[in-house]
C-alpha cells in the first residue's frame, strides 16, 4: 500500500512562492495500476517525485509498505529507491555507447547485487522485452521502440515493487506504445508490483485500476481504489 497523506509542496520563497501540491491525500493498494492525469503544470511530476522520495514536501506523509519515507535519512531513502522502485521516462536515459547488457546491468550494480547473480537477472529482463538478440548491441543503434523496451528491461531487472513511468508512450507510435503498455502491465501482474503512470493519454488511463486527476496541485477526482471521490 502507498499512502499519501496531506502532502503540500511549495517551490520558491515568500514573494515567489508557488504551491505545486496542495493538501494531496490518497491511497494506492499494492499491486494496482494507477494513472496520474492532468494538464501540463498541474503537479503530476512533483507528485511522482514526492512519492518516490526524490523530493521532500513541506507538509504531509508518504508511507510505502508501512514505512514513512519522509522520516528516513537520505541514505536510507536512496537505498529504498534503489531496491524497491524503478523509473521509466519518456526520454529513456539510456547510455548510447554502452551495450544493452551493460545498460540493463547498471541498476544491479547500484543496488550492489553480486555479479554472479547479475547475469541471469539481466538475461531474464532482456528476454521479457524481447531484446535477447541485442545483448551486445550498443543502445544508440536501437530503434525508438527498442530503446524504450531497453529502458523497461533496465527498470524491471531489479524486480521493483513500485514502478513509476512518466509518459512512457509519449513519443511512440500507437502499436509500439501498446507493446510498451503491455510490458508494463504484464510485469506488474507477474510480480504483484504497483504501477504508477503519469500520462496525458486517457485511453491508457482507462486501462489502469485507478486514475488520480490533478489540477492546480489539487486532487480533482479519483476513480477506482478504495473510495470514489469527486469534487
Ligand atoms: P506537471 O508534471 O503536471 O506538468 P509539475 O509537477 O512539473 O507539473 O509542475 C507543477 C508546477 O510547479 C508548475 O507550475 C511548474 O512550473 C512548477 N515547478 C515545478 N518544478 C519547479 C521548480 N523546481 N521550481 C519552481 N517551480 C517549479
Key features of this structure:
7 helices; alpha/beta; globular; 231 residues; single chain; 7-stranded mixed β-sheet; 4-stranded antiparallel β-sheet; disordered C terminus; binds adenosine-5'-diphosphate
Q: Can you describe what's shown?
A:
There is one protein chain. The chain is an alpha/beta fold. Helices cover 35% and strands 28% of the residues. Strand 10 and strand 11 (229-230) form a beta hairpin. Helix 4 (115-128) crosses helix 5. The longest helix is centred in the last third of the chain and has 18 residues, at 174-191. Mean pLDDT is 91; it is low at 227-231. It binds adenosine-5'-diphosphate.
Overall radius of gyration:
18 Å
Number of helices: 7
What sort of overall outline do the alpha carbons produce when their principal axes are compared? globular
- Strand content is 25-35%
Stretches with pLDDT under 50, minimum 5 residues: 227-231
What topology emerges from the helices and strands here?
Blueprint: E1 2-11, E2 18-28, E3 33-37, H1 44-51, E4 59-64, E5 67-68, H2 74-84, E6 85-89, H3 100-110, H4 115-128, H5 144-156, E7 162-166, H6 174-191, E8 194-199, H7 202-206, E9 210-215, E10 218-223, E11 229-230
Parallel strand pairs: 3-8, 3-9, 6-7, 7-8
Antiparallel strand pairs: 1-2, 1-4, 4-5, 9-10, 10-11
Bound molecules: adenosine-5'-diphosphate.
